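Hi team,

As requested, here is the filled-out complex form for the NAP run. I kept the field names the same as last time so the parser does not choke. Let me know if anything looks off before we queue the next batch.

— J.
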Amino acid sequence: METMKAIICAKYGPPEVLQIKQCKKPVPGKDEVLIKIYAASVTNSDIFIRSSNVPFLMMIPMRLMIGLTKPRQEIIGEVFSGEIESVGSGIHRFKAGDQVYGLTGFSLGAYADYKCMKEIDSKQGCLALKPENISFEEATSAAYGGLLAFQSMEKGNIKAGQKILIYGASGTSGTIAIQFARYLGAEVTGICGSSNIALVKSLGADKVLDYTRKDSIKMLEKYDFILDAVGKRKTSELKKACEKALTPNGKYFSIDDSALLLESDRLNRIRELIESEKIRPINDKCYPFEQIVEAHKYVELGHKKGNVAITVNKKP
Ligand SMILES: NC(=O)c1ccc[n+]([C@@H]2O[C@H](COP(=O)([O-])OP(=O)(O)OC[C@H]3O[C@@H](n4cnc5c(N)ncnc54)[C@H](OP(=O)(O)O)[C@@H]3O)[C@@H](O)[C@H]2O)c1
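And here is what came back:
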């Protein structure tokens, strides 16, 4: 039996529950590709699944979804980039040697040497060719932050010249949302903490407000679209004030207002914008595979700048 290394989450708990083990290497079916994974993202969703640390009322529906007493999928991880090693006879979109990026949906399994994926989008994930001009680690930021940012920004139907506010501009999705809004020709204000102001300006924000400063509230204008890019659990006085800072037809949307859509068309669009240098994914830290516990501890602090990745295999 061929084996591979993988990070196993055999029970809910702190980062230390994650263990590296040898597991059976998956074999692709007729309608699957076998991907050698080079990098995986350490996302808030991974932290959520590993810790199962959610408000009591959410616990039962969440556990029904991901596993009652332990994660149903032992190998967690939902964002990856890598190279296709082999393809089943029914595969048409991809061939061996293609470099790809994507999300694994409910099937998880990105924290491993190999993962089998279907080429058709489903709740089990989505897959597309990776942008050529970025690293595998950056590609994981593009996949996760890009999908979240794009699907949320599309709710705004943004037009050139409109005023857009991105609350939480320094996270994985916020850093991409700022750049996407600028690409669409909007006038963009980003909100972040003091230590991220320079980063958010460098992404093209016209104005930047600091959520830790009380006087930022006075600087709010009226916006055509406001995106809460950090989610409902992270808030501040400034965020509450934002809800009233809309034009008469303005719209406020939280990244938590809809489920993450697993769509390869959107991944293709993100690739085009990255390859034409209209947007660039932001990576904070990148950990070796063996330091997955440290990576989870860091992400759990809630202050990463952009994305955190693990290198699963180094591309020769
Ligand atoms: N809809 C879905 O299906 C779905 C799926 C996945 C995730 N999500 C949501 O997406 C959210 C964002 O994830 P992400 O990975 O893009 O973000 P993230 O990387 O977790 O955001 C981290 C950034 O948030 C900033 N931050 C922390 N507290 C803040 C606050 N109170 N106000 C403003 N900024 C704050 C931090 O900056 P400082 O260091 O300056 O504080 C840090 O740079 C998740 O938390 C989750 O709610 C939704």
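Two things worth flagging: The mean pLDDT is 96. The chain has two domains: 3-130+282-311, 146-254.

Thanks,
J.
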